[in-house]
Amino acid sequence: MARQGSRGGAESKKMSSELFTLTYGALVTQLCKDYENDEDVNKQLDKMGYNIGVRLVEDFLARSNVGRCHDFRETADVIAKVAFKMYLGITPSITNWSPAGDEFSLILENNPLVDFVELPDSHSSLIYSNLLCGVLRGALEMVQMAVDVKFVQDTLKGDGVTEIRMKFIRRIEDNLPVGEE
Amino acid sequence: MTVHNLYIFDRNGACLHYSEWNRKKQAGISKEEEYKLMYGMLFSIRSFISKMSPVDMKDGFLSFQTSKYKLHYYETPTGLKVVMNTDLGVGNIRDVLHQIYSYIYVEYVVKNPLCSMNETIQSELFRNKLDSFVRGLPFFSARAG
Amino acid sequence: MESRRVHWLPEITRAEVRAKEEKGERPPLSKMAVCIAVIAKENYPLYIKSVPTENELKFHYTVHTSLDVVDEKISAMGKALVDQRELYLGLLYPTEDYKVYGYVTNSKVKFVMVVDSSNTALRDNEIRSMFRKLHNSYTDVMCNPFYNPGDQIQSRAFDNIVTSMMVQVC
């Protein structure tokens, strides 16, 4: 996942996707052991994702040379076609735009985080891939967009596809720092 | 041609990094004061320019110059600002500032989990890389200026 | 292909292996097992399933007995097996009604399959590929982060594979 030092351009180091999937699995199951209930695990995953997102977006901008988006539709396109492709090797489709254009769904035919995973009955409220929500939320917050991200369908729970719903809340305006006249 | 100094500001206006090479004259005020003034000016120029622009512009402002020096400005969509002062002989160095961002800031600060992203950069590695990068620039020359 | 799976070479992904299987590069297997068991390294059962029409206990007994033969085979031809990376042990022993086949992974997990001896259509090659399919499915189970190694296997996916290999015997 990591990019080659300061020499290279956009090439990325290859890494076994199985190692990646298993690493994420180990992370989630360890969280499940450390926390009593699934809601707490979901929260932790979201927090971790957020922390990843605020850094990952810098890497993304450095590598992709994508400028500021003009509207939310453009943002959706960049997320699906550039960002997901770059970091997870998949291209989700964008559907279900709300009439106001402030809400859409990302449909993941195949979620690389959940290869091999079978959710046990005792974890029925666990949102296994919730890390992704945090990543998206953190990354967009850094580019002045407050969004609400959540899973509405998940193949682990028996749905046909995995669907992430994203809702635009507001633009974050940058302010003059305090103590400045 | 020469490079005088370089500021990096985060989205909230905190100065993350400052370094200088061929700076002949100091501002005569404390560094903190100087960073604040610099950021305040940039902030005003930026909002002024986007208000007054007769056409829709994407990149914001790139540089301004006085009779003695030229200030180059680069801002990422995340609000990180890289500011470099050079003498008048230097052309458009947007690419160079982007490289500082993507090859040095992102590599040695963002990807270093021990580096906090909204306070002054302590990383020695970052300083060294930045210094040798700037010294290696074609328009960096110690004897000029 | 099987050694690749077992030794976990990263350059061939599981998806590729699966795609090959789905393309049906070999003819559909005749589904003839009457009992399939997975035995841990320490010789306790991880999974055992038999056709419901028969006496379950009888199969447990058969599988249990077969473990001695497995151990014997491993120690007898142990060196040779390792050299060839051959995991299939072949026919362990025939009884009056059944034939018992064995397979052992490099991590010493054993698969045992009991087949009706009246079923002569089932050739060695088919048994072998059934084992390989089981092994692949077992590896997927091991890769499930919610599965603790050493626990009973409760995976639905694995269960489906096993069920697909068994038919009701009249």
UniProtKB/TrEMBL annotation, chain A:
Protein name per its UniProtKB record: Trafficking protein particle complex subunit
**UniProt organism field:** Anolis carolinensis (Green anole)
Q: Does the keyword Transport apply?
A: yes
One GO cellular component term: cis-Golgi network membrane
Encoding gene, per UniProt annotation: trappc3
Any one Pfam family here would be: TRAPP
Query: Which lineage is the organism of this entry classified under, starting from the top rank?
Result: Eukaryota, Metazoa, Chordata, Craniata, Vertebrata
Which keywords has UniProt assigned to this entry? Answer: Endoplasmic reticulum, ER-Golgi transport, Golgi apparatus, Lipoprotein, Palmitate, Transport
Family, according to the entry, reads as follows: Belongs to the TRAPP small subunits family. BET3 subfamily.
* InterPro entries (UniProt xref): Bet3, NO_sig/Golgi_transp_ligand-bd, TRAPP_component
Role of this protein:
May play a role in vesicular transport from endoplasmic reticulum to Golgi.
Output one GO BP term.
Answer: intra-Golgi vesicle-mediated transport
TrEMBL record, chain B:
Subunit structure as annotated in this protein's UniProt entry: Part of the multisubunit transport protein particle (TRAPP) complex. The heterodimer TRAPPC6B-TRAPPC3 interacts with TRAPPC1 likely providing a core for TRAPP complex formation.
Q: Which Gene3D superfamilies does the protein's record reference?
A: 3.30.450.70
InterPro entries hit by this protein: Longin-like_dom_sf (IPR011012), TRAPPC (IPR007233)
Which Pfam family, an example, fits this chain?
Sybindin
UniProt keyword annotation of Transport present: yes
Cellular component annotations (GO), alphabetically ordered: endoplasmic reticulum; Golgi apparatus; TRAPP complex
Function field: May play a role in vesicular transport from endoplasmic reticulum to Golgi.
Q: Which UniProt keywords apply?
A: Endoplasmic reticulum, ER-Golgi transport, Golgi apparatus, Transport
- Descriptive protein name: Trafficking protein particle complex subunit
- Compartments it resides in: Endoplasmic reticulum; Golgi apparatus, cis-Golgi network
Q: What is an annotated GO biological process for this record, any one? A: endoplasmic reticulum to Golgi vesicle-mediated transport
Keyword set includes Transport: yes
UniProt lists the family membership as follows:
Belongs to the TRAPP small subunits family. BET5 subfamily.
Highest taxon in the source lineage? Eukaryota
Name of encoding gene: TRAPPC1
TrEMBL record, chain C:
Q: What SUPFAM superfamilies is this protein classified in?
A: SNARE-like
Q: Give the primary localization class.
A: cytoplasm
Q: Where in the cell?
A: Cytoplasm, Perinuclear region; Endoplasmic reticulum; Golgi apparatus
Checking Pfam families in the record gives:
Sedlin_N
What start and end residues bound the annotated signal peptide?
Answer: none
Its GO biological process annotations read: endoplasmic reticulum to Golgi vesicle-mediated transport
UniProt keyword annotations, A-Z: Cytoplasm, Endoplasmic reticulum, ER-Golgi transport, Golgi apparatus, Transport
Task: Identify the GO cellular component terms for this protein.
Answer: cytoplasm; cytosol; endoplasmic reticulum; Golgi apparatus; nucleus; perinuclear region of cytoplasm; TRAPP complex
Matching entries from PANTHER family are given as: TRAFFICKING PROTEIN PARTICLE COMPLEX SUBUNIT 2
- What protein family is recorded? Belongs to the TRAPP small subunits family. Sedlin subfamily.
Full protein name: Trafficking protein particle complex subunit 2-like protein
Q: Which gene encodes it?
A: TRAPPC2L
